[in-house]
């Protein structure tokens, strides 16, 4: 199917090792998608949703032991342990390869191996990269068709010797002789390994069929491998949404924003501004790859072609555009099923349906004391279906970035918005990002963790070196052309636990201030932590926020920050000598500014 020698040789090796019954080259066609979905309906992996409500859409219910990314089973296998850094699990490449060789040996018996050539980014864009995933999961193929540009056109572009990232994936559940019927969600919950070899640009993933563990183009390639590649080649691979914002009668700006998983990136990316005549359009909701253009500006592409969003909490009220994106051609995973054959999840409607089948396939009623959907239930939806997808979302040149936002869920300390003094200070703010843990990964929900640049689970090398890479790019660039950097927090609460800021569409007010700052039109006041909007500069006309709450939202709380400093120091100490000196200096300068008399 290809004249690419390297790809053919690798495929031969994998076939000899994994022993699939058949090999199928994926062409990325609609016919292929429908055929695989039919096949998965036969094995019970998918149910087709009622086409009256959702044409060409399906629901998958996973094994209860396979419902999220598994950070404790995720490894960076570089030659030197010190290069993986303290935030990654490391294993020596040879040792891990030997262990995985045993697991992969015969693991595809009774199954078909699918070859998925994919492009992260528009095919042929100078910012895009090619990967090939070999997998025994038709669920992965169908999802990858939505999430990436897949199939024959990618193979054609790859030619006979083009470079590509190798991704081998198996659910780790061979079908023994005599043939047993397959499971509806085959996996190998006891033996999950999500392994990255950044030096050779390879991914080996075993045992899980879920999301980021299995759709290798996303977290594994577009973040962990790409971040290492970006360091080597002088660009950025980031856990960021991309949006386009156009002021009334003004020119469009592009904004990238990094938030930890399940902190509302999809909502912000598709926000409907409450401010009259401001327009917000979406280019991506999870990942941005950025390269400097010949004009010295930073240009971003969304390497993905779809959204793999958290379903619970998504409704016509919270994210109308996401809901409309889900009208057809989607795969839902671990949502509940209505008697009429549609999906439902917590928060989708104010009143839950009276009867459902929950994600564990059990009868469910509102009083049964369990959630109907899994908290990390997901939708996989084509980006092109988003009603506010920007017309230039597939521009191979990328879009010039005016501002970069960092943020997380912080009930206290962090103000609504804070502008960094410069790129170096912005890098500092990114490096101290922290957030309350969500259900997107296993662990205790609500616990506070530092998540620098929202890259904690996704940086494919030493996080200290990653900070240094950000600083280095800033040093090489023309400061006037660099995006401005902001830290935002929509999640500030009062003592009774009530949110101080309404969020959602009202966040357009914060975006407005940011854009006006970029255009040199809005006022700010210097504080020890950065530049905050003056009371008049933030447009709060028509928003219901108590003036006392606004005071808290736009205030630098010196005592609270001073109390946070020991935790920041401890966070920094993890990086030892590889923490760039400039960031330590930023921290000490912050400490000094906080102690100076106001
Ligand atoms: C995601 C995540 O799925 O960050 O985007 O977990
Ligand atoms: Mn994400």
In short:
The chain is built from 16 helices and 31 strands. It has 598 residues and is α/β, with parallel strands linked by helices. The strands form 7 sheets. Strands 1, 4, 5, 6, 7, 8, 9, 10 and 11 form a 9-stranded mixed sheet that branches.
What does it look like?
The chain is of the alpha/beta class. It folds into three domains: 5-45 and 66-234, Phosphoenolpyruvate Carboxykinase, domain 1, CATH 3.40.449; 238-304 and 391-595, Phosphoenolpyruvate Carboxykinase, domain 3 (Alpha-Beta Complex); 306-385, Phosphoenolpyruvate Carboxykinase, domain 2, CATH 2.170.8.10. The protein has 16 helices and 31 strands. β6 and β7 (129-135) form a beta hairpin. The chain is globular, with a radius of gyration of 24 Å. The mean pLDDT is 96. Bound molecules: oxalic acid and manganese (II) ion.
Bound molecules: oxalic acid, manganese (II) ion
Uncertain runs with pLDDT below 50, 5 residues or more?
none
User: How many helix segments?
Assistant: 16
> Count of DSSP E strands?
31
Q: Any idea how many domains?
A: 3
What portion of the residues fall into strands of 2 or more residues? 15-25%
CATH class of the largest domain: Alpha Beta
Provide the helix percentage.
25-40%
Overall outline = globular
CATH architectural label of the largest domain: Alpha-Beta Complex
Mean pLDDT: 96
What is the CA-atom radius of gyration, in angstroms?
24 Å
Termini gap: 70 Å
Fold-level CATH name of the largest domain: Phosphoenolpyruvate Carboxykinase, domain 3
Main structural class: alpha/beta
Major sheet characteristics: 9 strands, mixed
């Amino acid at each position: 199917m290809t004249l690419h020698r390297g790809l053919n040789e690798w495929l031969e090796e994998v076939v000899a090792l994994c022993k699939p019954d058949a090999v199928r080259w994926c062409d990325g066609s609609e016919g292929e998608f429908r055929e695989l979905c039919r096949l998965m309906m036969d094995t019970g992996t998918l149910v087709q949703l009622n086409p009256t409500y959702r044409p060409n859409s399906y629901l998958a219910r996973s094994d209860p032991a396979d419902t999220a990314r598994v950070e404790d089973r995720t490894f960076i296998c570089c030659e030197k342990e010190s290069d993986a850094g303290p935030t990654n699990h490391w294993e020596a490449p040879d040792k891990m390869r030997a262990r995985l060789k045993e697991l992969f040996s015969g693991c595809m018996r009774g199954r078909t191996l699918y070859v998925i050539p994919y492009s992260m980014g528009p095919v042929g864009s100078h910012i895009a990269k090619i990967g090939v995933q070999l997998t025994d999961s038709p669920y992965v193929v169908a999802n990858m068709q939505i999430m990436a540009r897949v199939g024959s056109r990618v193979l054609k572009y790859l030619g006979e010797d083009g470079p590509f990232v190798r991704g081998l994936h198996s659910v780790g559940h061979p079908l023994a002789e005599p043939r047993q019927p397959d499971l509806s969600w085959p996996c190998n919950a006891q033996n999950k390994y999500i392994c990255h070899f950044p030096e050779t640009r390879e991914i080996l993933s075993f045992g899980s069929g879920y999301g980021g563990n299995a759709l290798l183009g996303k977290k594994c390639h577009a973040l962990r491998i790409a971040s290492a590649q970006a360091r080597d080649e002088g660009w950025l691979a980031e856990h960021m949404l991309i949006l386009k914002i156009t002021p009334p009668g003004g020119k469009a700006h592009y904004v990238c924003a990094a938030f930890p998983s399940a902190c509302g990136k999809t909502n912000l990316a598709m926000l409907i501004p409450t401010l009259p005549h401001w327009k917000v359009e979406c280019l991506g909701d999870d990942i941005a790859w950025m390269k400097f253009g010949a004009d010295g500006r930073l240009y971003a592409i969304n390497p993905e072609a779809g959204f793999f969003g958290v379903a619970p909490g998504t409704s016509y009220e919270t994210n109308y555009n996401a809901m409309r994106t889900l009208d057809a051609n989607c795969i839902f995973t671990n949502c509940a099923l209505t008697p009429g054959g549609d999906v439902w999840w917590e928060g989708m409607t104010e009143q839950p349906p009276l009867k459902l089948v929950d994600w564990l396939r059990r009868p469910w009623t509102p009083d049964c004391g369990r959630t109907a959907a899994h908290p990390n239930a997901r939708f996989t939806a084509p980006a092109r279906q988003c009603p506010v997808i920007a017309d230039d979302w597939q521009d191979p040149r990328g879009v010039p970035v005016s501002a970069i936002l960092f943020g997380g869920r912080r009930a206290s300390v962090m103000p609504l918005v804070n502008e960094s003094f410069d790129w170096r200070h912005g890098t500092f703010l990114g490096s101290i990002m922290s957030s309350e843990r969500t259900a997107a990964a296993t662990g205790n929900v609500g616990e506070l963790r530092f998540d620098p640049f929202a890259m904690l689970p996704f940086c494919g090398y030493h996080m200290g070196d990653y900070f240094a890479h950000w600083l280095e790019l800033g040093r090489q660039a023309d400061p006037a052309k660099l995006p401005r950097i902001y830290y935002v927090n929509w999640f500030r609460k009062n003592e009774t636990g009530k949110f101080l800021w309404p969020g959602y569409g009202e966040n357009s007010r914060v975006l407005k201030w940011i854009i006006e700052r970029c255009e040199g039109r809005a006022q700010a006041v210097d504080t020890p932590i950065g530049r905050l909007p003056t009371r008049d500069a933030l447009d709060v006309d028509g928003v219901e926020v108590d003036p006392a709450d606004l005071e808290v939202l736009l205030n630098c709380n010196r005592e609270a920050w001073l109390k946070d400093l020991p935790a920041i120091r401890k966070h920094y100490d993890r990086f030892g000598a590889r923490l760039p000196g400039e960031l330590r200096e930023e921290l000490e300068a912050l400490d000094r500014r906080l102690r100076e008399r106001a």
